[in-house]
Design goal:
Largest interface: B-C, 96 and 90 residues
Order of helices and strands of chain B: EEHHHHHHHHHHHHHHHEE
Number of strands of chain B: 4
Strand content of chain C: 15-25%
Number of helices of chain C: 7
Chains: A mainly alpha (239), B mainly alpha (566), C alpha+beta (323)
Largest sheet of chain B: 4 strands, antiparallel
Helix content of chain C: 25-40%
Number of helices of chain B: 15
Radius of gyration of chain B: 24 Å
Oligomer: heterotrimer
């Protein structure tokens, strides 16, 4: 007799009850390890696509900087290196706290997890505030993408079209696209960390289940790494 | 209940996986209400929703095609459309067919159903993301329909700058749609890659996977590596229109040719997103209907990966006349020829699979043979386009139009139809009318060739593509033939639809394994239960056809299984 | 035309070639075509043969046969490699000639705009159809005013995109007196399919006569018409509007207030008359209208006095001043 349908298992949408503490095991996985490894591979692949997503901008940057080296050096002078550097430090620190949050989750330290996530969130918010101040100033002096020309030189004096290179908008087109897209990623990160924070208040993360903390932290590191490339490429290229 | 019989030998028994219990993924036990579909995480139901949507996209794109072909019956327009109407029609035909049908067609539509089954898995690795992919696809479709309603699109599906920056049509809506569809494609590819890596059943090594799985895997790699670049390109195009960032706009110092590089860096690999799964389907069909082990398994599997890799470094062959340096064109031409080799390897291996087989010409096999002939023409005419001097002449003429239709319609669409006929009994649990299945396959083949072969000749004679008006004495006879063919093709597709959909009511119940195939999706009932398999299947030696035996009573094949401990 | 699509002159894939390039392109095309036909017939023939010979028969099991052969795999990989390299080489040779113009070329500027091509010859003559002397090396310098176009002469086997913001070039040598069609091959918006032009290949003497004739359009037209034509073909419209709107330069409408003075950059002023216009065309930097930058190039050597007079007539007409 065939054993083909000897086990008539029902659709177990309510699979959690069967697995006790490992209630997050989805029905289609055999083991929590298989589930965790699948998730891990998935998130890494996703982060790979994120890098590729930005790669188009890096290529555009490289091409136009190669074609207009003076323009890039000159326009970079408009950027506030202090603010950029502060943001770099803020983000690197937040990556540390994000990694710390994962560690806390793995060790069942709920309080530590909440604190680490809260600091990460605060850093992310700080980053966006500084970015806002920078953007506001740029737009104020007319450094907006497109065919507008600014009202000031990088040193704050009145704009002199005879000295400034032609087509400054090329640099600022790329600047706003790169930092803007990165900013959107930071905003998404803020949303995700807030979500983690709410769940940790509810005590949902344990040493047996910390996958979301782990994955969001990985995402946050990528956001950080991208900024670490953006900062020198945009801010630190004056001769 | 399963029927089983004692085989002639004491060590084997015959197993039929079909069950009469009536419990399957579409039955009441799995839910029938709206929510049971809208929130389903079952890859099979998601696949069915895709198939419904894909049919809609194909019908819409096809209707545009027929309208275009009718308009082109005469040199100044059969209906007498305005030039703008014509331009919108060909743009929407191309954009809808490419983004809504060809790219998701086989992987997201059919792969979704078959891939987990072939791996003996209960579902894909991330069912929620799978559902998200579908809704992203649906959102993209809504964007395209909205584009149609709020002023159309007249950029061509390629969105070339600077025209796409300045035209007043709904470029933003269409780009947003393509952007969203890109993410649908990325998530599908990512999901399938992880599924192949992590969800194979016990004992199924990489080289015990069916070749269709290999092709879907290679497709997934392209989807996640190439599509993000399309995403950023479309974002930049939107930013260019909104804020004049000056990256692609020459009047602001930008470079329109850069857009072409970005665009083809995605869109050339995207051609392989369309055609690799089609090749995977062909591999399955040739071996099954020849009842012979696929010839050169390893070479076919690796050639999929080789095509996926090479597909990334040939994009410049779309730009021989763009003004890129002659060195770049020469290098791209050279590398492009290298893609011919893995493609040729596949064709020769399929041919060798037929040799000394036991060939039966059922509908899916008719489609497979048709695929072989059409894809061969599509591939061989690619050689004319890869060669620099001839491509300079042929670029942007109807020769190119014919070439890529041979690859994408003759290749992808024909393989899609073959796959649909092949797996339909599994998907629906019903057998369609075999006679009309064959008729449709033959009509598709005839209609297709009548439509597109004349286009090669008129292209090499100079007829540029995307032309509303043409010189009648030079080109009309080609256009008329082409239009007649398009109608034949249209009738054939209607026959397919009626035959398949009609079978749900009238068709006889499908056995578990109507074709005698050896891959895992046939080792469960038709249609499968919600969790696919009653128990995790033993991984068979695939493509060993002695292991399936025809049974006249059930009208299908049963498995010859070695009894453990005998 | 007959149903098999032979053209009336008996040709099939190509019309008779108009250049050496086209002949080489056709040779390479035919080489690839015949290789393709051989492979197509071989594969489809074997396919059909196998389908018949090994069709499924009741009760007959297929004979065992190998499902792997490294020797076969290698041979059917190597043979296409060799053939592909031959195709590549054949195309490459012609392509190199196409992209490397000889030193002694006759250069013609091609300006594409929606939806027409315009040609400017070395002596400044402008025309709407391309005339070239036969048997000479002609180089085209392609420039677009708006979007992408592509300059395609099917009979010559040459094609090159016309890209705004850069100059692409192409060259050819047409040995026979004839006329050939020119298509725009890159989609460029509404009237793309009506963007058609013509190449006329002439004997040197005929060509020169035509060039002379075409250049003297002033003699064939009324002064206002000739002025409007000048305004159009010399690109004045790029900077000077005729509806009063401000461009890079002052509009032609509003200039002509006869005898009145006009403020210049630097505080001077000038009286508007024929000489002022003539001066502005030939030495534009000498007198710059107030509120503008001196960016206009000189047309000395391109516009003779006849054309300038026509332009003045046009200016007066735009402003409704009696001639």
């Amino acid at each position: 007799m065939s054993s083909a349908n000897s086990v008539a298992d029902k659709p177990d949408h309510d699979a959690h009850s069967e697995f006790g503490e490992e209630w997050h095991l989805a029905h289609h996985f055999h083991t929590p390890e298989q589930q965790f490894e699948s998730g891990k591979m998935g998130i890494w692949l996703f982060l790979g696509t994120e890098i590729l997503f930005f790669s188009g901008l890096f290529v555009a940057y490289a091409l136009y900087r190669f074609n207009h080296p003076d323009l890039f050096e000159f326009a970079s002078g408009y950027l506030d290196t202090t603010m950029g550097a502060t943001n770099t430090v803020v983000l690197i620190f937040s990556s540390l706290t994000a990694a710390w949050a994962v560690r806390c989750a793995q060790l069942n330290q709920r309080k530590g997890l909440i604190i680490a996530l809260a600091i990460t969130l605060a850093c992310a918010a700080t980053f966006m505030v500084i970015k806002y101040i920078e953007y506001k100033h740029k737009i104020h002096i007319g450094l907006f993408p497109g065919a507008w020309s600014p009202t000031e030189m990088p040193d704050g004096s009145a704009f002199d079209p005879k000295v400034a290179p032609y087509n400054l908008s090329i640099f600022f087109g790329i600047y706003f696209c790169m930092t803007g897209l990165h900013g959107i990623h930071v905003l998404i990160g803020i949303g995700l960390i807030t979500w983690l924070l709410i769940r940790s208040f509810k005590g949902e993360f344990t040493d047996k289940y910390f996958t979301p903390v782990d994955f969001v932290a990985l995402y946050w590191h990528i956001v950080d790494v991208i900024w670490i490339f953006l900062f020198p490429l945009l801010y630190l290229i004056q001769g | 209940m399963a029927t089983s019989q004692q085989g002639s030998s004491a060590q084997t028994e015959l197993v039929d996986y079909q069950s009469d219990a009536g419990d399957h993924y579409l039955s009441a036990s799995s839910g029938t209400g709206f929510k049971s579909w809208a929130f389903t995480l079952d890859h099979k139901r998601i696949s069915l929703m895709y198939l419904a949507g894909l049919s809609f996209a194909l019908a819409l794109g096809g209707a545009f095609a027929l309208a275009l072909r009718t308009e082109l019956l005469s040199g100044d327009g059969f209906f007498g459309w305005s030039n703008d109407t014509y331009n919108q029609m060909f743009t929407l035909h191309g954009a809808i067919m490419t983004f809504l049908f060809l790219i998701p067609g086989i992987p997201a539509g059919l792969g979704n159903f078959i891939l987990p089954l072939m791996l003996g898995a209960k579902d894909v690795a991330f069912p929620r993301i799978n559902l998200l992919s579908f809704y992203l696809w649906a959102t993209g479709a809504v964007f395209f329909v909205a584009t149609l309603l709020i002023g159309g699109l007249d950029t061509g599906w390629t969105f070339y700058t600077p025209y796409s920056i300045e035209t007043q049509t709904a470029v933003m809506t269409a780009t947003a749609g393509a952007f969203v569809l890109g993410f649908s494609s990325i998530f599908t590819g990512l999901n399938f890659i992880v599924t192949v890596h992590k969800m194979r059943s016990k004992g199924q090594g990489w080289f015990q996977m069916p070749l269709f799985v290999w092709s879907i895997y290679a497709t997934g790699v392209i989807q996640i590596l190439a599509t993000p670049v399309l995403g950023i390109t479309l974002l930049l195009l939107m930013a260019e229109r909104l804020m004049q960032i000056g990256i692609f706009d020459p009047s602001l110092g930008g470079d329109p040719v850069l857009f072409q590089h970005f665009f083809w860096f995605y869109s050339h690999p995207a051609v392989y997103i369309m055609v690799l799964p089609a090749m995977g389907v062909a591999s399955e069909l040739f071996t099954t209907f020849s009842r012979k082990h696929i010839f050169g398994y390893g070479f076919i599997a690796m050639s999929s990966l080789a095509i996926a890799f090479l597909g990334f470094i040939v994009w410049g062959h779309h730009m021989f006349t763009s003004g890129q340096t002659p060195i770049a064109s020469t290098v791209f031409s050279f590398i492009t020829f290298s893609v011919a080799i893995p493609s040729a390897i596949k064709v020769f291996n399929w041919l060798a699979t037929l040799y000394k087989g036991s060939i039966s010409l059922e509908s899916p096999m008719c489609y497979a043979l048709s695929f072989m002939g059409l894809f061969l023409i599509g591939g061989l005419t690619g050689l004319f386009c890869a060669t620099t001097s001839t491509d300079i002449h042929l670029h942007d003429t109807y020769f190119i139009v014919a070439h890529f239709h041979y690859v994408m319609v003759g290749g992808t669409l024909v393989a899609f139809l073959g796959a649909l006929h092949y797996w339909w009994p599994k998907i629906s649990g019903r057998m369609y009318n075999e006679f009309w299945g064959k008729v449709s396959a033959i009509l598709v083949f005839i209609g297709f060739n009548v439509t597109f072969f004349p286009q090669f000749v008129m292209g090499s004679r100079g007829m540029p593509r995307r032309y509303h008006h043409y010189i009648e004495e030079a080109y009309q006879s080609f256009h008329v033939a082409s239009t007649i063919g398009a109608y034949i093709l249209g009738v054939a597709l209607v026959i397919v639809l009626v035959n398949l959909v009609g079978s749900i009511k009238r068709g006889r119940r499908a056995p578990a394994n109507p074709w005698g195939a050896t891959t895992l999706e046939w080792k469960t009932q038709s249609p499968p239960i919600h969790h696919n398999f009653h128990e995790e299947p033993d991984v068979p030696a695939i493509y060993e056809y002695e292991n399936t035996v025809y049974n006249r009573e059930i009208g299908g094949f049963v498995d010859r299984k070695v009894v453990k401990g005998a | 035309m007959n149903p098999l699509f032979f053209a009336s002159d008996g040709t099939y894939w190509f019309a008779p070639p108009g250049t050496e390039f086209a002949k080489e392109v056709i040779w390479t095309f035919n080489f690839i075509l015949w290789v393709s036909i051989v492979f197509f017939v071989l594969i489809v023939g074997l396919c059909g043969y196998f389908v018949v010979k090994y069709r499924r028969r009741d009760g007959v099991d297929p004979e065992p046969s190998p499902h792997h052969s490294t020797l076969l795999e290698i041979s059917w990989s190597i043979v296409p490699v060799i053939l592909c390299m031959m195709m590549f080489w054949s195309g490459f040779k012609t392509y190199m000639k196409m992209t490397t113009p000889p030193a002694n070329t006759y250069d013609i500027q091609v300006e594409a705009q929606k939806w027409s091509f315009g040609y400017t010859y070395p002596n400044g003559t402008f025309s709407k159809e391309l005339h070239v002397p036969k048997g000479e090396n002609i180089r085209l310098i392609l420039n677009s005013k708006d979007v992408l176009h592509s300059f395609f002469i099917p009979d010559f086997g040459v094609k090159m995109d016309v890209v705004p913001g850069r100059f692409n070039t192409m060259w050819f040598n047409a040995p026979e007196v004839n006329e050939h069609i020119v298509f725009c091959a890159e989609y460029c918006g509404s009237d793309h399919s009506d963007m058609i032009s013509k190449v006329v290949v002439q004997d040197r003497a005929d060509f020169e006569a035509w060039l002379e004739e075409e250049g003297n359009y002033v003699d064939r037209m009324s002064p206002v018409e000739a002025g409007a034509y000048t305004y159009d073909i010399y690109g004045c419209s790029q900077c000077h509007s005729i509806d009063g709107s401000k461009g890079t330069g002052p509009s032609f409408k509003g200039v002509w207030t006869w005898g009145q003075s006009r403020a210049l950059e630097g505080g001077d002023s000038v009286t508007v008359d024929e000489n002022y216009i003539r001066e502005s065309v030939l030495k534009p930097k000498a007198m710059i209208a107030s509120g503008y930058e001196g960016v206009m190039p000189s047309f000395n050597g391109q516009l003779n006095d006849k054309k300038i007079l026509a332009l003045i007539a046009f200016l007066k007409d735009v402003n409704g001043v009696p001639q």
